[in-house]
Amino acid sequence: MLELGTPRMSDLAAHLGLTARTITTAVDALEREGILARRPAPRDRRATLVELTPAGRAHIQEWQAFQCQLSEEVVAR
Predict the structure, then answer these.
(1) Residue ranges of E strands in the chain
(2) pLDDT per residue over 26-75, tens digit each?
């Protein structure tokens, strides 16, 4: 599985081409679902890091398994 680490929210927003408000809204929703967690940046009190929770990792693993199954079914035809 791809390891994303714990990016700063601002870096994640820039990487995805999203505004700060949009990334905050997305992280809020994913945090409510238990997929992501916010962490304070150890060396910068102004920054917030985001990381996958165990439930988030499980969700990604399930999605990857689904994608593999779907690919196999498409190729098998």
Answers:
(1) 36-41, 44-52
(2) 999 999 999 999 999 998 889 999 999 999 999 999 999 999 999 998 88
0.85 cut: is pTM over it?
Answer: no
Distance CA 56, CA 5 (A): 13
Q: Where are the domains of the chain?
A: 9-76
Beta strand extents in 4-56 (DSSP E only) = 36-41, 44-52
9-76 placed in CATH 1.10.10.10: yes
Contact 12, 20 (CB under 8 A): no
Contacts of 33 (CB under 8 A, 6+ apart): none
Angle at 64 between CA 63 and CA 68, to 5 degrees: 120
